[in-house]
Design goal:
- With about 70 residues, this protein is an alpha+beta fold.
- It is built from 1 helix and 4 strands, in the order βαβββ.
- The protein has one helix at about 20-30, and strands at about 5-10, 35, 40, 45-50.
- A two-stranded parallel sheet has the order 1-2. The protein has a two-stranded antiparallel sheet with strand order 3-4.
- α1 links the parallel β1 (about 5-10) and β2 (about 35).
- The protein is elongated, with a radius of gyration of 14 Å.
Length: about 70
């Protein structure tokens, strides 16, 4: 194992959308060793990959994803 490991924060943050398939693919293209991502369970027991508690960064709509 080579050290240090290069870990893509939420994929390829700053290059592609965070916590997205395109971000994870871009991180792989860049040769990173792994990715850090945020996984949460919804009320209806679905797994989602998102960091924020709402979708303000992604849409003009006000959608809450996680409750406190």
């Amino acid at each position: 194992m080579k050290l240090p490991l290069i870990i893509g924060h939420r994929g390829a943050k700053g290059i592609a959308p965070e916590n997205s398939l395109s971000g994870f693919k871009k991180a792989v293209e860049l040769g990173i060793d792994g990715v850090e991502l945020d996984v949460h369970l919804t009320k209806d027991e679905k797994l989602i990959v998102i960091h924020d508690i709402d979708l303000k960064k992604l849409t003009v709509q006000t959608y809450t994803v996680l409750s406190s």
